[in-house]
Amino acid sequence: MRKMVWLMVALLVMSVGLAQQTRLRVFVGGQQRPDVMRKIFDLYQSRNPGVRVDVEVGGATSDQQQQYLTTVLASRDPSIDVILIDVIRPAQYLASRWADTLDKYLPAASRQSLLQQYLPAYSQANVINGQLVALPGFADAMFLYYRADLLEKYGFKPPTTWDEAIQQAQTILQRENNPNLNGIGFIGAPVEGTVCTFLLPIWAAGGDVTNAQGQFALTVEQAQRALQFWVGLMDQRVSPPNMAEKPQDTIRSEMQAGRWVFGTLFAYAWNRFQNDADSQVKGKIGVVPLPAFPGGRQASCLGGWQWVVSDFSRNKAQAHKLVRFLSSPEVSKILAIEASNLPVFPALYRDPDILRVNPWFAQALPVVQAARARPQHPRYAEISEVIRVTTNQVLARQKTPEQGAREIVSRLQAIYGGR
Amino acid sequence: MTQPKYRRSFGDLSERALAFWLLLPAAMLLALVALYPVARLIYTSLFRRRLTDETGLSPVYVGLSNFAQALSDERFWTALWNTLLIVLVTVPGALLVGLLLALLANLPFRVKWPVRLGLLLPWALPLVFAGLIFRWFFDSQYGVVNDILVRLGGERLLWITTPDLLFWAICISIIWKSSSFVALILLAGLQVIPKELYESAAVDGANRWQSFWRITLPLLTPAILVAAIFRTITAFQTFDIPYAMQNGGSAFETLAMYVRTTSIENLNFGYGSALAVLMFLISFAVTLVYLRYVRGAED
User: Which of A383, B96, B121, B132 has the fewest Cβ atoms nearer than 10 Å?
Assistant: First the structure.
């Protein structure tokens, strides 16, 4: 009998001990450097002894992660508290009511002063219909990576227009005469990055999918010119005929093996080129803003990842506290140094510790500031599918740029019209 | 006091009632994992439910309008047609290749395991892996198929991004993956054919070709039918291989792929469920037709 009593007491003490520790589960994608995230969570745990943060690592691409999260969130599973989501998703998270909006933790004045610290693109991307859906973790944009050694060999400066890039690629390919070397790499497979490929020339020409009032505004002519531009790169033989097969990471790994002169890629590529054990191009890669389009401006595609609290979390207040930490300048700096993730605070682009590791961040700020966001819409998944699949078919020459443009415009019109 | 009474009442159960109680747990499990999801699917298909708007939390009853939408949806018909093409090419293809493999494995080799292992491997491989492997085989730059073509003096083909070539690449992958399953069933069928029949046929002067047509094939028919049923049903559900081979693209889309995109990616659960119900009905109808055949063959 006495043993029983002691056992009960022991159980009670243990359960109180367990109850005092809050466990938070955070979802990050496989490409978002879970190893670095773990270090950041360890730091948070050491400062908040009552909290334990577990990491759940998901698929490599944004689409794969969202497929899994859709299953979790649609079934209102409370097991995940905080999620790192792509910049294209806050509108959908709000519409599906998957996000615990952060306004209730922030009085209007402090929300205003918090959002002012971030790059404007990210405070805009995370406020949907006046509600704060998420807070930014790190920034991203597309850049032009080039083989500094090859450009130097032929006396070229990094290109500022696409015409220059095409000419340089033609000259280098001709003189090098290496069958394994390709010219200009861009994302052409039916993946999310191809939405950026399609939109870049449209933005550069001053157009967009919607106008300032959020109404559908894309014309067939704009879409056709954009598609024609990329098909033209294959016609001029600076890009190989199989661009429709290429997702972003294929171009990255091929460039890493020395097979591309130019590559249009997001910021994550730099760290891989410099630090991966198998990289053939260490110290040979330069980064500049994407070139300007014929008769247009320079444009880049806004990427980046946001921290959102799941509406089904059972520890929302603690999760919100964690998200505030994760979206702080301190974490932004750690991510910049350890993972080469672009900071979401403009001041950090001049931070000497960061510039020592990523010297090119000095030129990256104007690119991120000028980068354009893909359409914000609850049905973004469908918009993305229309654009990436059709663009891919045009690159595969199953459709002419004109047919592709007509199809994109009419199908997007239907989505924006609520059909 | 109560115990003997209880025991007696248990003992009094008629055989029919006993069977009922013994089967109940299994039946309930089946209802839970098979009937409930199907019922739920049919229920959801009658609602407008999009997780991207307010109907995500409060679905709106729309009757059969999701089905009406499907019937006027060009993409649904294309996906159905593509699925039919897959069935028409890969079922006979797998039966033919599977039969050849089974005949090969049934030859009196002294060491049987290498052939049997070769038969089992593709079957044991997950479908997605097969899709990814063949995606690399057919890669235009690094693929072994184009490498062979070039060595034979041909030209590099863009297998994955040219629709007609993609279709054949998918069919070849599916046939490779599924013919080993067919071969396993047919091999089992071949091994129960009595050897005496061949011996007496040989005594009567029949050549190998004749004994194949007159003995092997007729006696193998039940096994072929079983293999054909399973293969057809799974062919109607084709998803993994074309999905993995296209890197998530939908240039060649089967019904199952369209269902997935609609519900999981576009979050349109109502319409996605309606498409899934249509797919279920088609598979069900095909199964019924086959079952009639099998019964006919048995009679």
Answer: B121
> What ipTM is given for this predicted complex?
0.76
Cβ within 8 Å of residue A130, ≥6 positions away = none
**pLDDT tens by residue, A130-185:** 999 999 999 999 999 999 999 999 999 999 999 999 999 999 999 999 999 999 99
Task: Give the span between the Cα atoms of A82 and A22, in whole angstroms.
Answer: 13
Question: In this complex, do B267 and A385 lie within 8 Å of one another by their Cβ atoms?
Answer: no
Domain holding A261, by residue range, is: 141-301+375-416
For residues A326 and A307, is the Cβ–Cβ distance under 8 A? yes
Is the domain covering B61-298 a CATH 3.40.50.720 domain? no
Domain ranges of chain B: 61-298
- Compute how many other C-beta atoms are within 10 angstroms of the C-beta atom of residue B170: 27
d(C-alpha B246, C-alpha B251), whole Å: 8
Closest residue on chain B to A70 (Cα): B264
- As a whole number of angstroms, the longest Cα–Cα distance in chain B is 93
CB contact under 8 A, A244 and B250: no
CA distances from A341 to A120, A197, A354, A359, B2 (A): 17, 21, 10, 13, 75
A96 vs B52, B158, B246: nearest CB = B52
Residue B14 phi, psi (nearest 5): -70, 165
- Strands A302-309 and A82-86, sheet pairing: antiparallel
